[in-house]
Amino acid sequence: MKSRMSREVQVRFCESVRVRFPRATRRRSIRHFCEIYETYFRDGAKELVAIREAIRLDSALGRALISILLVFAQMEREAVGERTREAIQHIRRSGYHFGKVPYGKRAVRAPDNARMKVLIDDDAEQAIIAQFNEWAAAGIGVSEMASRLNMAGIKPRQGARWTKHTIYNLRLRLSQIQSRAVNARSRTDEDVKDRMLELRARGHTHAQVASILNELGFLPMKGRRFTERSVRKLFGRCRETRVLSPRRFLEAMLERMRREHEAVEPDAPFERPGFPTLAKVLGDAGYVTPKGRAHWWPAQVQQLLEGRFDRYYSRAARSEITHSE
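Request: output the structure for the sequence above.
Response:
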């Protein structure tokens, strides 16, 4: 029987009961407070005890200690994620490849750094890509393309046989075709993403977001209704900084912070971070000022939250700026 307390803490009931933490957190944070927590059976009763301090984890002090360790675990998890993203960005800025190799390419060792890889053309796969274009120009459909490749004994990179879905998705990734909306929609993709992010900022789950979108008359690109799975996929491909204006981005962030604060300290009033902190957040998120500068001043953030820059950061104005760039 397993009872999950959180992502970082898990209590397991079997021959013994353990409080488990992530490996990185054990090394960096918990080591400074106490050793591994274990359970000892005394007179048939299960007791959670911290070895070094002899603190019962089911006591008030033990629960407070777990809360402190959870904070350190969250900080360490965010730091690891940030360091990983920075390392990947550094590799790509340096001209090397990291991640899955796209079709038509293959990864080889970089001539100037044996630890890194670069992409070069794969002649066999490039010939297949060129064949797709020739067949498409001749009016041959994807099902016939798959049949011809299978008859020729050519295998895809993954799987045993070519299918129409494999070829369609591959040509979509290669930008040879564009996905077309099946449903005739009165609202654009930007409208859908904007409403989804707004609902998530209010604390709605994926299932609730899907239900609300359906009630409001939003339609997906394909299918009759939004589902929890489709909403989850859309969130995975949606970046707030590309959809939301700077003001909406800050408002959504502050709403999440307020809800998290109320969940931890419901009796204490929520204090909004100062304008200098919010200015740094906007700069780190990649937003530029109305004058096109990356550095935000606190006074500009105040004017932004008051709505003085709404006209500049409207969707039409942002599309014109992107088009001019």
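The beta strands are 2-4, 10-12, 37-42, 45-50, 105-110, 113-121.
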